[in-house]
Design goal:
heterodimer; A: about 375 residues; ABC transporter involved in vitamin B12 uptake, BtuC; two-stranded antiparallel ribbon; two-stranded antiparallel sheet; 4 strands; B: about 350 residues; mainly alpha; 14 helices; globular
Chain lengths: ~375, ~350
């Protein structure tokens, strides 16, 4: 991996310390703004679609940050992250479906999902993390596709392609009042009803926050330093006396566990689990794009990448539909602007980004790309 | 005690090696399957289907493996060539119309070969473009290679969707290759024989080029030690682009063959096949043609036997096969390079 980092490092100029400082302030400011916006999302953007977007951002910040632990901090390229995400989600969904909606079902199902993710990660890690990075990428890709096929074929458990729809604990139902006013209706705070939907959003938000802070702690811990040492120079880390395979497997398991937690949150929020929303390769590509756009090797980058990509997903498509309509008289343009084709543009942006700003937004701003 | 086990082990390994070593694995697999299936005629049909499928996968996998061996580039966008080959083959077959569906066997075959040739040529040209534009800037940098080729894969898949649309496209199969032969109670689809023959021809051609020509000598030398070949004054970048074009062309050829085999294709074809291709390359060992052939035949046989015995396990079985082989030989069965 030493060559990798030198190439990334060469692409990011580090001559002006002042600019880096300004960049740092910008990144922290952006992240603080995003955090604040998410914390107050139900009050700032009360409509249903914005709530959807905010909850999705929360879940994906956890998912993408855990992926960044692998790709950014340790230099492991895995394509199996959606597999772990899916294990958490499916565990929760199946438990709720069989045991009825209740917190014990979420705990048990989610717990089983996390344990399954950990065991699988341990197996894959011990089996294939000792060989080349590129080999590992292929093994994880194959494992993830097998998991996807299994999910759609074992339809007795997983509902096949249709997935599972279920109800969640009553506390989170929109009809539940947290605080009732004199008329027996849900009390309103700044015009927002204090109902179960709000409780659900804050459940997702606070869990995501805790997980994210936990990951920040890991990155700052001695373990985090060892991981970065492995990324920089595997041989040297081994020579100093760190057992590279053990550390790599450990972080792979941690990332898998966190991804499974994100899966639980997703399953609880959506009240639906299916291959399309938790397992598909499109989601893996989303995660990859988010990490690279935001900046590999910084937790803050994950936050920025997720927000940008998610907003683009929800609102750029609308814009493209408008563009396609406006240009419907021209020959090829409307096809190119068809909202279905948005991945085409995103893919092009992605390639250009990897060429010219391999450190991503946060990395470029903070001068993180330089690791020498 | 340890002495006897050690000598027993060496005796065992030399014993296995004398009979072809890992090359015997497909035979062993076939024998086990015969015992499990019981009926020889069913077994023979499945075996031929497996061999044909293996040969088509070999076409797709050999290019990937060679590109990796020589250039140290793992092209995650390889499946884009497979998809493009399939669609171009299907389109050409569609254009030729009566040539393909009519009763004249010579015209039928000519039409099919034309379609495969069109796909192959396109694959080569697209490979040239891909190497120049996408991969050239990121040699020596695995992380960015993976990212960029995945990005290119997204773009290529979207382009296929843009041109051919998302609905499945039927592929006309040449009249002479439809139907099946019955040989001693065993029915064999003719297309499978054709696929097997074509795959074998490609393998022999590749083998001869790599082992009997000066070009092949340079390629093999490049796989073994790139710097040394460069130091001796050969332009290794020209070899790179040649191998890349050949690999992409083979992928497109495999895609076109697979399209004819399936009869109905969608833009997801490439990525579906890619899983098997990756498994084959991992099993066989990166960078070796023999390894790819061995891996492809193993995977093809396994897929067909298990699909008959335990239908739901078909893909998972190949995954398990890969895991078992990785445990046994972490670099694959016949690796050309141990990096």
């Amino acid at each position: 991996m030493a060559q990798t980092t030198s190439a990334i490092g060469a692409a990011v100029p580090n001559s002006k310390a002042g600019r880096t400082f300004a960049g740092r302030v910008t990144v922290y400011g952006l992240v603080a703004l995003i955090g604040l916006a998410l914390a107050l999302a139900p009050f700032l953007f009360p409509d249903v679609r914005s709530q959807e977007v905010a909850a999705r951002i929360c879940v994906f910040i956890v998912l993408v940050a855990s992926y960044d632990l692998l790709i950014g901090y340790t230099g492991i390229v895995s394509f199996a992250h959606t597999m772990f995400f899916g294990l958490g989600a499916y565990g929760t969904a199946i438990a709720i479906k069989t045991m009825g909606p209740g917190f014990e079902a979420i705990l048990l199902g989610g717990g089983i999902g996390i344990v399954a993710a950990l065991v699988l990660a341990l197996l894959i890690g011990l089996l294939s993390l000792r060989v080349k990075a590129i080999f590992f990428a292929m093994v994880t890709l194959a494992a993830a596709s097998v998991m996807m096929v299994l999910a759609s074929q074992l339809s007795d458990f997983t509902g096949g392609e249709d997935g599972i729809t279920y109800s969640i604990p009553k506390l989170f139902a929109p009809a539940t009042e947290l605080l009732a006013d004199a008329d027996g209706k849900a009390l309103r705070l700044f015009g927002v009803a204090l109902n179960g939907k709000l409780a659900l959003y804050y459940f997702v938000f606070i869990s995501a926050l805790v997980l994210f802070l936990g990951m920040l702690r890991i990155v700052a811990s001695p373990l985090g330093s060892v991981l970065q040492a492995i990324r920089e120079n595997e041989m040297r880390a081994e020579a100093i006396g760190y057992r590279v395979v053990v550390y790599r497997t450990a972080i792979f398991c941690i990332a898998a566990g966190v991804a499974a937690c994100a899966g639980i949150l997703r399953a609880v929020w959506l009240k639906y689990t299916g291959p399309e929303v938790v397992l598909s390769f499109d989601i893996m590509i989303d995660i990859l794009l988010m990490v690279v756009i935001g900046g590999m090797g910084t937790m803050w980058g994950a936050v920025i990448g997720v927000v940008l990509m998610t907003l683009a997903q929800y609102y750029l498509k609308d814009l493209m539909a408008l563009g396609a309509e406006a240009s419907s008289a021209l020959p090829i343009v409307p096809d190119l602007l068809n909202p279905e084709r948005w991945l085409l543009w995103l893919g092009l942006c992605f390639i250009l980004l990897v060429y010219f700003f391999p450190a991503g937004i946060a990395g470029t701003l903070m001068g993180k790309g330089v690791r020498r | 005690m340890t002495d006897t086990t050690a000598s027993f082990r060496t005796r065992l390994t030399t014993g296995i090696d004398r009979f072809g070593g890992v090359l015997l694995l497909p035979v062993e697999l076939a024998v086990i399957a015969l015992l499990l299936i019981g009926q020889p005629s069913t077994w023979a049909t499945l075996t031929i289907a497996g061999l044909a499928m293996g040969m088509m996968i070999f076409l797709m996998a050999s290019g990937l493996s060679l590109i990796f061996g020589l250039m140290d580039v793992l092209n995650f966008g390889h499946s884009a060539f497979v998809t493009a080959g399939a669609f171009i083959g299907a389109t050409v077959l569609g254009w030729l119309g009566f040539w393909v569906t009519g009763g004249n066997p010579a015209l039928n075959l000519a039409g099919l070969l034309l379609a495969i040739a069109a796909a192959t040529i396109f694959g080569g040209l697209a490979g040239w473009f891909f190497e120049r534009v996408v991969i050239r800037p990121v040699y020596q940098d695995h992380l960015r290679q993976i990212l960029i080729t995945v990005g290119a894969l997204i773009v290529a898949e979207e382009l296929v969707l843009l041109i051919w649309g998302g609905a499945p496209i039927p592929v006309p199969r040449p009249a002479v290759l439809t139907g099946s032969l019955v040989l001693g109670g065993v029915s064999v689809e003719i297309y499978r024989i054709f696929a097997f023959a074509l795959g074998l021809a490609v393998y022999v051609a590749l083998y001869l080029v790599l082992n009997r020509t000066r070009l092949g000598l340079l390629i093999r030398a490049g796989v073994e030690n790139r710097e040394m070949v460069e130091a001796l004054g050969f332009r290794i970048d020209r070899l790179f682009i040649l191998v890349f074009m050949a690999g992409s062309a083979l992928a497109a050829m495999g895609g076109a063959m697979w399209a004819g085999y399936q009869g109905l294709i969608t833009a997801a074809l490439g990525s579906e096949m890619m899983i098997l291709v990756f498994i084959v390359v991992i099993i066989g060992g990166l960078g070796s043609i023999q390894g790819s052939l061995l891996g492809a035949i193993l995977v093809g046989l396994m897929a067909n036997y298990v699909a008959f015995l335990v239908p739901k396990m078909a893909l998972a079985s190949n995954m398990l096969l890969m895991m078992a082989i990785l445990l046994w030989r972490p670099y694959g069965l016949l690796p050309a390079v141990k990096r």
